[in-house]
Amino acid sequence: MSLNYRQQRQLQRIESLLLRSDPQLAAMLAMFGRLSAGQRMPVREQAATRLDRIRQAAAMIGKAVAAMFAAIDLFVSAVLALFTALIMGSRAQRAQPTSQRANPGTNGR
Questions:
Q1: Which residues of 91-100 are buried (b: 16+ CB within 10 A; e: fewer)?
Q2: Which of 37, 52, 65, 91 is disulfide-compatible with 48, CB 3.0–4.6 A?
Q3: C-alpha angle with apex 56: 51 to 60, nearest 5 degrees?
Q4: How confident is the model at residue 81 (pLDDT cuts 50, 70, 90)?
Q5: Distance (Å, rounded) from C-alpha 22 to C-alpha 73?
Q6: Across all residues in the chain, what is the average pLDDT?
Q7: Closest by CA position to 95, among listed 106, 83, 105, 87
Q8: Is the pLDDT of residue 1 over 70?
Q9: What's the CA dihedral at 16, 20, 25, 27 to 10 degrees?
């Protein structure tokens, strides 16, 4: 892990304050540091890099675009269904009077 000068200085200040306030805890943390020095940090505990954040943002944008296209597709389907229903309804209303005129005497019998 590479830290800039300011971050290193801040960690050194924290370490010196810890040594003064709780030397036993500082000794335990130092031992833990020596024992775990050769091990890699678990992935879930690593800080995300800039590239990781860019990838996450790109994935979220991709999901948003896919959801937008699905919503547009649903809207277009609903509009087409509405127009189809209106057209079929108007044809049915026009066809109904002609069928009643074709059989004028069958309604009451």
A1: eeeeeeeeee
A2: 52
A3: 145
A4: very high
A5: 64
A6: 83
A7: 87
A8: no
A9: 70
